[in-house]
Design goal:
The chain has 471 residues and is an alpha/beta fold. Helix content is 20%, strand content 30%. The chain is built from nine helices and 23 strands. The strands form five sheets. Strands 2, 3, 4, 5, 6, 7, 8 and 9 form an eight-stranded parallel sheet that branches. Strands 12, 13, 15, 16 and 17 form a five-stranded antiparallel sheet that branches. A hairpin with a 2-residue loop joins strand 12 and strand 13. The longest helix is centred in the N-terminal third of the chain and has 19 residues. It is elongated, with a radius of gyration of 34 Å. The two termini are 25 Å apart. The N terminus is likely disordered.
Length: 471
């Protein structure tokens, strides 16, 4: 992408036509006409769409009225990978590693007694952007229990989940998929959607040793029958069960759905976009007239050591850059990344109110992310401050212009004043005594005035006076 190009045109103080006769001068009113001609060349950069908040931190949606067996129908094909019976110290870490490497989210239906044995795995599952579902406390057949017993199973598991990871489960899966109206009612009272499946991989019946032939069957059952919105049933627990065939099949399942354009969601079709860049916009200010500065950090979990593109949009004009600034605090908080994932960027901006949006550009699976929302920033004018107070003909054959100017970028430096009479230019500069300007603008000096007398032909003359920009 091209960086913006800024033409070095001067700032017009005023254009005037002066009619002059040899016997009498005509005085024009001291009207300031400030025409800003500095331009911006738009840079086309990919726009990102800010993502939905991660499902694990977003709170639960309204529970579905009945059990769900497929994700909601939509114009986009979606698939919910659901993984039951964990967490297991043997299998869950392998599953999480594969999901993380692919930027894929899943919903883990976990058992309370296993949570209490492996609370750290639950915390990791949530931290990596996955949904947690309630799979009861001890995995009983719910239809064999009273209402009170069913409630106790849900509540005990929920308490263990909250204690381990600080989140409320938004989904309930009854063991074996067996439930009754009481189960549904109790789940809905607790804010949980009762969740079934459309594609049972039957991985729970796999041999207790590596079986490439059975893995083929797991993959085939995960994608057949073919739906536009399946919920796939897999297993990563419980301790003592052998789930390596499931682990070894998972990559092929992900590849199959991804190659056909499916988006990985939770059972209600929500996406936490676990492959999206992480990041923060820590600063968005105008440090000087005509400038906007943005600073923060970002890294992409799909490629945590790679620089992330940072695209800044100011009133719709894009400026591409990337991370590379030192941020050891980010490395300390996210050991998987590097200490140079920061950015501190300054861009030109028009005077006035500017809308600033900063995007972290996604590398692998996921979407571009808007960092911190769009900001509204007031920017002072970087062009020379100026006034043309006088345009006159003081004597035959003469034009006089007077006024003042200073450049906010170098407020104590003299400003070039270019006078054009009928297209013929004369270069001068400020230097005349104007204490009133110093009083109004303390950052400048008292010698930023100009009084310039130049030759001119008889008749009507077009006079243009420019203040020449410094910074």
């Amino acid at each position: 992408m091209r960086r913006p190009v800024f033409p070095s045109s001067p700032i017009a103080l005023r254009s005037s036509t002066t009619s002059r006769r040899t016997s009498r001068a005509k005085r024009f009113p001291a009207v300031v006409v400030g025409a800003m001609v500095l331009g911006l060349v738009a840079v086309v950069a990919p726009l990102g769409t800010g993502p939905e908040a991660a499902a694990a931190a977003a709170g639960c949606p309204e529970p579905a009225a009945g059990a769900v067996y497929r994700t909601p129908s939509s114009s986009v094909k979606t698939v919910a990978l659901t993984i039951d019976d964990g967490p297991s110290g043997a299998w869950t870490p392998q599953v999480l590693d594969i999901l993380k490497a692919n930027g894929v989210e899943a919903t883990f239906f976990i058992i309370g007694e296993n949570v209490r044995q492996n609370p750290g795995l639950v915390a990791r599952t949530v931290a990596e952007g996955h949904q947690i579902g309630n799979h009861t406390d001890t995995h009983p057949m719910m239809t064999a229990l009273s209402a009170a017993q069913q409630a106790q199973q849900m509540d005990a598991a929920r308490s263990s989940i909250v204690a381990a990871a600080g989140v409320q489960p938004c989904f309930l899966r009854a063991p074996g998929g067996s439930f009754n109206p009481t189960t549904l009612a109790l789940a809905r009272e607790r804010g949980m959607t009762l969740t079934g499946w459309s594609n049972d991989t039957i991985d729970w019946n796999a041999p207790l040793s590596i079986s490439p032939a059975y893995q083929v069957g797991i993959v085939d059952r995960s994608i057949n029958p073919v739906y536009d919105n399946p919920i796939v049933l897999l297993h990563d627990g419980s301790p003592g069960n052998y789930r390596q065939n499931t682990v070894d099949s998972l990559q092929r399942i992900i590849d199959s759905y991804r190659s056909r354009g499916y988006v990985f969601t939770d059972p209600l079709g929500r996406t936490g976009n676990t492959g999206d860049p992480a990041g923060s916009l820590d600063l968005a200010v105008s440090p000087a007239p005509g400038q906007i500065r943005v600073a923060g950090w970002s890294f992409d979990p799909s490629a945590p050591t790679e620089p992330v593109g940072i695209h800044t949009y100011i009133n719709g004009v894009g400026y591409p850059s990337q991370t590379g600034g030192s941020r050891p605090d980010v490395k300390a908080a996210y050991p998987q990344t590097t200490a140079d994932q920061g950015f501190d960027l300054t861009w030109p901006a028009f005077a006035g109110i500017n809308t600033v949006c900063v995007y972290a550009i996604n590398i692998g699976p996921g979407s571009h992310v808007i960092l911190g929302g769009c900001r509204t920033i007031a920017v002072a004018d970087a062009n020379p401050a100026r006034s043309l107070d006088l345009v006159s003909s003081p004597a035959p054959g003469q034009i006089r212009v007077a006024g003042w100017s200073f450049d906010p970028s170098a407020p104590t430096e003299p400003v070039g004043i270019h006078v054009y009479i009928n297209g013929l230019g004369y270069a001068r500069s400020t230097g005349a005594y104007r204490p009133d300007v110093r009083t109004a603008y303390p950052q400048t000096t008292a010698n930023h005035g100009f009084v310039i007398t130049l030759p001119a032909p008889s008749g009507s003359d077009t006079v243009c006076v420019y203040a020449i920009n410094i910074g």
